[in-house]
Amino acid sequence: MKKFIVLLCFAMLTGSNIAQTLTFKFANPYLRYISPNNYFYFDILVKADVSGSYLYGTQINCDINISDVNTSILPLITLNAPFNSQYDDPDLGLTPKYTISSRNWADNRLYITVNHTNSIDPSFPDAYCAITTSYQVLGTIRIPLQSSANVSQSLMSFYSSGMDGQQFKASSTPPYNTVYNIPNSYENNLSGIYYGRIYCAAAFNLHSYGPWTQWDGTVNWNTAVNTSVWDYGTAPAEITNTGSKALALRIHPGAQLKINVGADLTCTGNTEINGAEGLKISSDAGGAGSFIDNGTISYPNSGSATVERYLTTCVGSTGSSCWHYVASPLTSAVSNVFLGDYLRWYNTSIGAWSSEYTQTNYPLTVMKGFAISEQGSVGPNFHTNHYFTGVLNTEASTYPLALTGTTGGGYNLVGNPYPSAIDIEAAGIAWTNVASKVWYLEKSSGTYLAYPKGGAGATGSQFIPPMQAFFVYANAASASVTFPNSARVHNNSVPFYKEAQAPNDVDVLYLKAQGNGRESYDLASVVFRDYATRKYDDAYDAQKIYGDAQTPQLYTLSEDNVNLTINSLPYTDKSATIPLNLQIFENGTGSYAVTASNLQSFRSGTIITLEDKKEAKTQELTSNPVYNFTYTDGDAPARFLLHFMNPYFGIDDAGKNNMLVYSYKHDVYVKDRSGNPRAGQLYLYNMMGQEIARKPVANIQLNKFTFDLPEGYYVVRVITNDNTYNAKVYLN
What is residue 162's three-state secondary structure? Predict the structure, then answer.
């Protein structure tokens, strides 16, 4: 049978018959597992519109998703103080002020009746509980749930027509009360609360699970479950775990979910962000939070997300080591987010940077990269953090790339448009008429690091941090790049400004140039791999992009004279010689070092030597990987040669590896590897077997001979007192 709510209030009023209104709301939802059942808890709050009201009795009636309720178990309501208090008058005895007279399920609804144990009597106002003008907890309701309810939602709301009952005010003379027809109002129902996982900031005294509660009692972020954030407190809900997952995340109006630095969250299904800044993704000097939506995002109630981006300051400087490359994570953002800083972009059509932009309404186009010089405390706009608030990018559109001029290729500054990392190796990335590699500006070094797809010889990472901008190279018209959602990953190990990632590559040499008391440095690498050639290979090599003018710029040359950060060479010859150039554009005079690393990736027996042509010195890097030298402004860039002698490259006199013979351009090198150099004689023959020249071999580790001969192949024979060594060389 349909029941109606009766709200009886005892009040001490004088001279007014204005109706008093009680306002009810649901609050503090959470889950608790009490074997063998799961229970949904929530509070009933009440307040009066005027002071001097007293509660006599009430019914709490609500519509509910009854199919998720285990109706074989009665609901339970526990009254809260002061409504659960007792008399302290010994003449009256210790009698409860209120009792729960009924609780039941009917008509797909929940009915609970709270009655006072005494009649209305104005002489005993202390027998009734005062209703304050701010919310107070009347009681906590516990609802038993079906085992399938964790994938559903409560759909709970006040049965307002059933709760429109009577309210009484007391007077000092009979009749002691006056009846009003519509004395109640209602706020904040629980419609849409998921039973899978719930956040609420309230401190619960009935459970110990913390503000996050989950089905079956244990919060498990490794499993994606329906998740609600229902937080009306002062602090946001926080994600502090890595590997956190949620299904159908719903951030309710007035709530906020914050993903802390170093934490990450992956959502599937529809993510619903109700209200302004409902989702916040944090960033500081230690990194950033990460968010991936593998589904859709909706923004009811003027919802929005805020993505924070921390940038280190470089006050008063506009040098290249000061610039940060950034992209917007929003579908629509303008330059005002960088107010107080320098902003510019790369104009590919003319191959030059734009002037520094000062307007506040320039659109930050999705996937377009921008260079930001973070000025921090300069002027009134003190900040190192920038806040992007709006609609997040998801499944970003294809970004078209330009060419420099009308022919050839062109460098384009593009950006990661997501609040999560991108894996360059992801199969879903579309590289259309563009080299599948990226170049990063590393702020700490002031130079560019490169990563080619496949990773061989990479000086940068395969993971592009959230909002990181970088260069790509278009090599034909109608070029574009697309980063779909499937390319997104969580990777908090790579900082916003890339550190060199030295994977355990096989037959890869990394070289670092640094000195003159500066922290800045440059990196280059040489890779030996199948299918590479000595000329520039778009699939395997990476061109050199010059960084800070005061940083040593280190690069190798391909056979067709392309400057390379990553140089991939074939396994064709027993020996290989590669030009290694070093250039400093400003204030370069000083002491420097070239340091080799990853030498252990080459097979035992490989000898790698650095030749300094200016100083006429050689140093075996495999035994001494740090070469120290001085540089003077104006020195020619073509200063060094790298010599690789590997008995496993190609085919040559197996077992006679104490002496290596190889060539570079018009020079022939004789390298003694025995540790006890021996004198001897070098004979040079043409391919007809005719002797062309002979030279004495000194008892030093490396002999170098220069010949002015026609380009072609020649045979070299070196005779010492204990052996004879033969090799075919190419002179040009």
Answer: helix
C-alpha distance from residue 370 to each of 93, 306, 319, 332 (Å): 77, 19, 15, 15
Cα separation, 567 vs 634, whole angstroms = 26
Which one, of 525, 523, 550, lies nearest residue 540 by Cα? 525
Give DSSP secondary structure letters for 582-623. Answer: EE--SS--EEEEEEEE-GGGSPTT-EEEEEETTTTEEEETTT
Q: Write down the residue that tokens 């939506």 correspond to.
A: 293
For the ranges 89-98, 331-340, 657-666, 717-726, the lowest mean pLDDT is seen at 89-98
C-alpha count within 13 angstroms, C-beta hemisphere, residue 414: 28
Higher pLDDT, 43 or 173: 43
Nearby residues of 248 by Cβ (< 8 Å), 6 or more positions away: 194, 226, 227, 267, 268, 269, 270, 271, 272
Instruction: Give the position of tokens 């075919």.
Output: 728
163 phi/psi in degrees, rounded to 5: -95, 0
SS (H, E, C) 163-187: HCCCEEEECCCCCCEEEECCCEEEE
Closest to 364 in 3D by CA, of 382, 377, 345: 345
**Cross-strand partners of 527:** 508, 568
Nearest alpha carbon to residue 539 among 551, 548, 530, 552:
530
C-alpha–C-alpha distance, residues 609 and 506, integer Å: 18
Q: What is the pTM of this model?
A: 0.81
- 415-451 pLDDT, tens digit each: 999 999 999 999 999 999 999 999 998 866 778 899 9
Residue 595 to residue 231: CA distance in whole angstroms: 55
Name the nearest CA neighbour of 601 among 503, 704, 699.
Answer: 503
Distance CA 606, CA 305 (A): 55
What is the chain's mean pLDDT, rounded?
A: 84
- Contact in structure between 414 and 369 (CB atoms under 8 Å): yes
Distances (CA, A) of 410 to 17, 284, 346: 81, 34, 11
The burial of 203, by beta-carbon neighbours within 10 Å (0-12 exposed, 13-18 middle, 19 or more buried), is given as exposed
The Cα–Cα gap between 539 and 475 comes to 12
Inform me whether the pLDDT recorded for 651 exceeds 50. Answer: no
Mean pLDDT within 74-78 = 92
Q: What is the 3-state secondary structure (H, E, C) of 435-487?
A: CCEEEEEECCCCEEEEEECCCCCCCCCCEECCCEEEEEEECCCCCEEECCHHH
Model confidence pLDDT, tens digit, residues 265-296: 999 999 999 999 999 999 988 889 999 999 99
Report DSSP letters for 678-725, one per residue: --EEEEEE-TTS-EEEEEEEPSSSEEEEE----SEEEEEEEEESS-EE
Burial 273-286 (b: 16+ CB within 10 A, else e): bbbbbbbbbbbeee
555 contacts: CB under 8 Å, gap ≥ 6: 524, 544, 563, 564, 565, 580, 581
Q: From CA 58, how far away is CA 131, in angstroms rounded?
A: 13
Q: Which two tokens stand for residue 231?
A: 């937080």
CA distance 191 to 371: 46
Q: Which residues contact 252 (CB under 8 A, 6 or more apart)?
A: 192, 193, 228, 229, 230, 231, 274, 275
